[in-house]
Design goal:
The protein is mostly helical. It is 39% helix and 7% strand.
Length: 134
């Protein structure tokens, strides 16, 4: 597990399935499972490195940053981070949180359409007739 070309800095997870719900309890559950999965991976990694006997690599594992989230799960991850007593730094990456879009209104991440970006110039890359959305 040693490389002169690669240095592991953190663990990244994007819970894209959070876009499939607007239910607050489901979003809490998604955020909880997302962080729990990363914590379990970190524990498994520590066991493997410990079994190899590499103390230097073992000490670095506790310093790994966690990067998690999606716009719908942003506040749910943020609320959980203090509850889980993370040893690592937690970075949440809320995607388009700054600008929002109609998806964020549907999911409840944005309160209403007044929270949406004023204008976005882009190419249309998807048509969703069932949602009356481009």
């Amino acid at each position: 597990m040693s490389s002169s070309a690669v240095s592991l800095q953190g663990l990244y997870s994007h819970c894209g399935h959070a876009y499939d719900t607007s239910d607050v309890d489901e979003l809490d559950d998604i955020a909880q499972k997302d962080l729990t999965m990363l914590l379990k991976f970190k524990q498994d990694l520590k066991k493997r490195v410990s079994a190899e006997g590499n103390a230097e690599h073992l000490s670095r594992i506790d310093l790994l940053d966690f990067s998690v989230g999606s716009t719908p799960s942003l506040f749910h991850h943020r609320n959980l981070s203090s509850d889980l007593n993370l040893e690592s730094q937690l970075e949440v990456h809320p995607g388009n949180h700054t600008f929002y879009d109609r998806q964020q209104v549907w999911s409840g991440a944005a309160q209403d359409e007044s929270c949406l970006a004023g204008r976005v110039l882009t190419r249309v890359i998807g048509h969703y007739e069932d949602r009356n959305t481009l």
